[in-house]
C-alpha cells in the first residue's frame, strides 16, 4: 500500500514512516507543512493519505483543508485524519464530503499499533474508521433528534457500527449473540428512518452520513 504522510512533528512523522514500512507498506512522500500536502498527493496519487489536522504555517486546520481539497481533486482518495483532540466540527466536515474511505483518529490511537494499522487498511479499502471518542462526541452532543429515542444498547451498537465494526465484532464487544446485534441494528435503522438492511458496508456509511448531517 502506497502512503503519503503529512505531520509536522518530526518524531511522530518518522515514527509513522517506520511503523508503516515495518508493516510492509510504502511511504512515497512526507509533508511537514500544509502547503506541501497537495503537491505530494497530486504527484504520487497514493492508496491512502495520513494527514494531521493542524499543520504549519497557521496550525489551525491546514491538514483538514488539504484532505477536503484532495478528495475533490482526487475523487475516491482514502484519507485518514489524525487529531490531538476530539474536534467534532472537523469530523463532521470531513464526513460531509462523503463517508467512503474516511477515517478520523486521535493521535493516541497511533500508539495502539494493531488498531491503527487496522483502521488505516479499512480506510484504504474504502471503509470507515472513526475514533471511539469522536463517535461518543457525535452521539452525545446532538439533542432533540431521533438519536434520543435509541436505547442505551442501541446507542452502543450504533457507536460500534460508526467505528466500522462488523456484526461479529460488535457481538463480541457487547457480549451478545449476532442475532441480538442484528435486532439492535434493525431497531436503530427503524428509529433513524434508514433502510432496514444491516448487511454490507452501506449500513455503516448510512449511519455515518446521518450523523454527519444531523443538526447540532
UniProtKB/TrEMBL annotation:
Phosphoprotein listed as a keyword: yes
Keyword DNA-binding carried by entry: yes
Domain Response regulatory: 2-122
Alphabetical keyword list: DNA-binding, Phosphoprotein, Transcription, Transcription regulation
UniProt-listed InterPro entries: CheY-like_superfamily, NreC/VraR/RcsB-like_REC, Sig_transdc_resp-reg_C-effctor, Sig_transdc_resp-reg_receiver, Tscrpt_reg_LuxR_C, WalR-like
The protein, known as: Response regulator transcription factor
PANTHER family: TRANSCRIPTIONAL REGULATORY PROTEIN NARL-RELATED, TWO-COMPONENT RESPONSE REGULATOR
Start and end residues of each HTH luxR-type domain: 143-214
Record-linked Pfam families: GerE (PF00196), Response_reg (PF00072)
Modified residue annotations for 4-aspartylphosphate: 52
Amino acid at each position: 500500500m502506497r502512503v503519503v504522510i503529512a505531520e509536522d512533528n518530526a518524531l511522530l512523522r518518522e515514527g509513522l514512516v517506520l511503523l508503516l514500512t515495518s508493516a510492509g507498506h510504502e511511504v512515497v512522500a512526507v509533508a511537514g507543512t500544509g502547503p506541501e500536502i497537495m503537491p505530494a498527493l497530486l504527484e504520487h496519487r497514493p492508496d491512502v493519505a495520513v494527514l494531521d489536522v493542524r499543520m504549519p504555517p497557521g496550525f489551525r486546520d491546514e491538514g483538514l483543508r488539504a484532505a477536503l481539497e484532495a478528495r475533490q481533486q482526487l475523487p475516491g482518495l482514502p484519507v485518514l485524519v489524525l487529531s490531538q483532540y476530539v474536534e467534532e466540527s472537523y469530523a463532521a466536515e470531513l464526513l460531509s464530503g462523503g463517508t467512503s474511505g474516511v477515517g478520523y483518529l486521535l493521535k493516541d490511537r497511533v500508539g495502539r499499533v494493531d488498531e491503527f494499522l487496522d483502521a488505516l487498511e479499512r480506510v484504504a479499502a474504502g471503509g470507515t474508521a472513526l475514533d471511539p471518542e469522536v463517535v461518543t462526541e457525535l452521539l452525545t452532543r446532538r439533542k432533540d433528534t431521533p438519536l434520543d429515542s435509541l436505547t442505551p444498547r442501541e446507542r452502543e451498537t450504533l457507536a460500534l457500527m460508526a467505528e466500522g465494526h462488523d456484526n461479529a465484532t460488535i457481538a463480541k464487544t457487547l457480549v451478545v449473540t449476532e442475532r441480538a446485534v442484528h435486532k439492535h441494528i434493525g431497531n436503530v435503522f427503524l428509529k433513524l428512518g434508514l433502510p432496514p438492511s444491516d448487511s454490507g458496508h452501506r449500513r455503516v456509511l448510512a449511519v455515518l452520513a446521518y450523523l454527519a448531517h444531523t443538526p447540532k
